[in-house]
Amino acid sequence: MNIQKFATVSKTSFVVGLLACAASVLAAEPNDQLRNAALRVMEGRASVYATLNRCDAVFRKAGLDSRYVKQFWDSRRFEVFEGVRIALAASMIDSEFPSLPSQDGGGNVSFEQCESLVRNDAPGKLDIEGVSTDDLQSMVAAYQATRPDPRARRDRSLFNDCIKANFNSRQTDFAVANVRCICVGMAMSSVPQDQLDEWLARVHSGEALPMQKQSWFDALAPKLQACYTR
């Protein structure tokens, strides 16, 4: 055996192997960063939920089911939490969304503190206390990179609008509203989707006729009524 040739080949193989290993590490690093960002977002969510849990008695004393607050808070950050699911390679519904333990510090909270938490959480706001903007944006980017079906956001928005309508009509039990709105979502899926998209676009531009005037409403009406008579 040619020792010099063997040494050269071995050295080359070692370098190739080292480069391959380095490439593997570098390729994995962005995924690790994304996962770590997702975990930090989860920690922030758990912390907010801990505070909301402390406010539960305050909300209920004021006649408000705190599950409404959590629904609205989560809904505003829909893309962020979808990004978390992607970053953690997890497929789950909201009730199965992973959570991390968070220290809420215990103690009592005032109505003013809890009211402020709700009032300051304006539509379009992504902020989560203790979570950086970079982490939040990385989750949104992870979701957008999957080229999601725009109807996923539309359906989420319709569901949230339904929950709001129940809340505004003084439905005090969130569980009832949730069941109703799941049913409404299924009913809306029976509408020709292109026609529904066109009507919603006109609604947003202020041009649409009321839903009751749409050609598909007569078929939809009994399904919607059934959602509220169960």
Share of helix, binned: 55-70%
Low-confidence stretches: 1-28, 91-96, 98-105
- Total helical elements: 9
What share of residues are in beta strands?
Answer: under 5%
User: What is the rounded Rg?
Assistant: 25 Å
Keywords: Signal
Signal peptide: 1-27
Would you write up a description of this structure?
It is a single chain. By secondary structure, this protein is mainly α. It folds into two domains: 93 residues; 100 residues, no CATH class. The protein contains nine helices and no strands. The longest helix is centred in the N-terminal third of the chain and has 59 residues. Keywords: Signal.
Question: Which descriptors would you attach to this protein?
Answer:
single chain, 70% helix, signal, 2 domains, disordered N terminus, 230 residues
Structural topology:
Blueprint: H1 3-61, H2 66-76, H3 78-87, H4 111-119, H5 133-144, H6 150-168, H7 174-188, H8 193-205, H9 217-228
Q: How is this structure best summarized?
A:
70% of the residues lie in helices and 0% in strands.
